[in-house]
Here is the input.
Amino acid sequence: MSHRIITEQLEQLARQRTEFDGDYLSRAEALGRLIWKLAEGYYEPDPNNPDRMLYYKPSQWAIQLLLDRLEGKVPHLTPAPVPAPGSFGAERKVSEEVGDLAKQREKANKLAHQLKLADCASSPA
Here is the structure.
């Protein structure tokens, strides 16, 4: 029941007009154009250097979404991975993340152990 209410609200919002790349169109059409743009890849001016253009590679999830929709399939979306700070969009494997967390935990445990030993050695018996 509640999913229908949400769908009705989304449909109402999708019909509203908005500005997208200089055009005034429905939000649904703007979303469609954005997905196409992401699927094709695009250039954008570098905010730090106006003489340079940045290229954004096509997004696999956008390509898959378009292919599924064009074939009449209902896609099951999963959230896009969040890049690690400083990785500039490079995806990391979960195993790498777990390994890094384990190393950080090991360092923290060693430090806590050293602090505990130092505290015991400096306190009067």
Helices lie at 2-15, 27-40, 60-70, 94-122. Residues 113 and 119 are 10 Å apart (CA to CA). The mean pLDDT is 80. The longest strand covers residues 49-56.
